[in-house]
Amino acid sequence: MTDPVLVEVLRCGHVESAHRGAVAVVDADGRTVLEIGDVGQPVFPRSAVKAIQALPLVESGAADACGFGDRELALACASHGGEPAHVELAAAMLASAGLDEADLECGVHWPSHFESSLALARSRGEPGGLHNNCSGKHAGFLCTCRHLGVDHRGYVAADHRSQQLVREAMQAVTGAGHGEENGATDGCSIPTYAVPLKSLALGFARMATGQGLAPARARAAKRLLAACMAEPFFVAGTGRADTRLMQAAPGKIFVKVGAEGVFCAALPELGCGIALKCLDGGERGAAAMVAAVLARLLGGHDADLAGRLMAMAHPPVLSRKGATVGLVRPAAALTG
Amino acid sequence: MTDPVLVEVLRCGHVESAHRGAVAVVDADGRTVLEIGDVGQPVFPRSAVKAIQALPLVESGAADACGFGDRELALACASHGGEPAHVELAAAMLASAGLDEADLECGVHWPSHFESSLALARSRGEPGGLHNNCSGKHAGFLCTCRHLGVDHRGYVAADHRSQQLVREAMQAVTGAGHGEENGATDGCSIPTYAVPLKSLALGFARMATGQGLAPARARAAKRLLAACMAEPFFVAGTGRADTRLMQAAPGKIFVKVGAEGVFCAALPELGCGIALKCLDGGERGAAAMVAAVLARLLGGHDADLAGRLMAMAHPPVLSRKGATVGLVRPAAALTG
């Protein structure tokens, strides 16, 4: 099965490039709301499932013990831009458990937010683990280890208690198996598992509604999604798709990007979860796809919101002088 | 016709993303050497045809009048990284015609070479037109205007003498029509035209061999390709695919990237030209494609070189700690 073209990139009216993809939207009972392409294909969700990976932080009591509010929980679910506010909050999260940057095992990279990289260079700074887009998630892992009295060293390994807890949560929420046969290593060194898009969508329908989850897990899930929706800057950052989409409809849309063209999302009021993959791994295509899918699902409920979302699904292509010379455009298979 | 998957991206042995593409390789008589996918589809070559766009600079006598050697000609054909040596040379090219950065109409962006952006920020600098990856090409346009006694202002417009000369060269070399019906605006504000991949491949076979071109044009074409092959750093820069591929076999491979997943190349000894497009516009896929195609074409002649090229077609996927967690891999449709 060849997945369809879902997004086209036009230059002065001519199609220059195209992105294929697959989209699954299901409710918490697993009923299909929308299916495009092969939704059974296994996909590495990468960072798109950080909210599920953060469940042990809340369920264990570690988040409360550390005094975490919405911002800290949002950062635990984030792929942040390494902007100063992100870096400071990640450091504070670690400090609340008596840890610091040296305990992070996520690796180092310059801030994803380009202006923050320039500012860091201007101040003669160098990046550290706190600037890694995953530092909030890793801070959450570390705080959970400390709260449980588990030696945190080596917490990124598949057989460490930290990743066992994450894997148990991922399996219970998505209903998909997570084992050696579908496992790999993520960019931040923790395990990632390829599971069907439909299972990821089901997982986020359950996260949003609590249906199909034990009561304590359901409460933790709703608390995490609510935190992200309340503090979308701390889930991504300036100019980023997930932040802008959540800001477009406060409390109505949860959305999270994953590397290699993945987005997971949830619409609590509609009780559905969304998972999509741009098959070439490109975030440009994936961002237009998720905005268009959200517009399609919410269009009947709020035409004004749908219009704002569709505008985000149609970003302009600009010249280096800032002139509009093209357009990203969702294809008919996506807009319905 | 659905173009085939030509490159797969694996994470710990599982395919995570895939890039579709089309490849045309032809000789100077237009005979097919290799065809994969739809080679008749119109493609905006973008910066991949800068060597053809530089023909008027040489043919007009402007390059000699300005005293340009291999480095200057390579930079006129370049999408450079904005590294200090690129910026200094572009400034010198403009100065040789009595012009400066303010005359550039390509727009401004931070150096594509990330380390050079950081260095510029550390020195409290700001980017200007000279840092634009196209500044060498635009310097060439400006020097040509000055040499011909043409007012250079507005030289990026389709109806300016500068772009008329470029269009005439592009049409003559590729044999494809360039008009309003297939025209658009490139990122650096000059016109770009969507033409079949096969025509682009033919154009580079002619550039490399001189066949099918008037004698003066054939000499200019060979001089430009030779300059790029002699000074590959000035065609792209540190770590870049085109630079590394040309360095792998000095004088045997000409290769040039274009935005949105395009590569054009030529193999002078084999007398063939190459044009390919990664259909999603991704440079990751396109770079693996061009390395694999070059390895396939040169493999029978130099097994050692073919091995080095195939290694470049299989770059590792790294974690943020530098561990190898995956691999980019050309697909069977590409390796033959």
From TrEMBL, chains A, B:
It comes from the Bacteria. InterPro entries: Asparaginase_II. Pfam families: Asparaginase_II. This is Asparaginase.
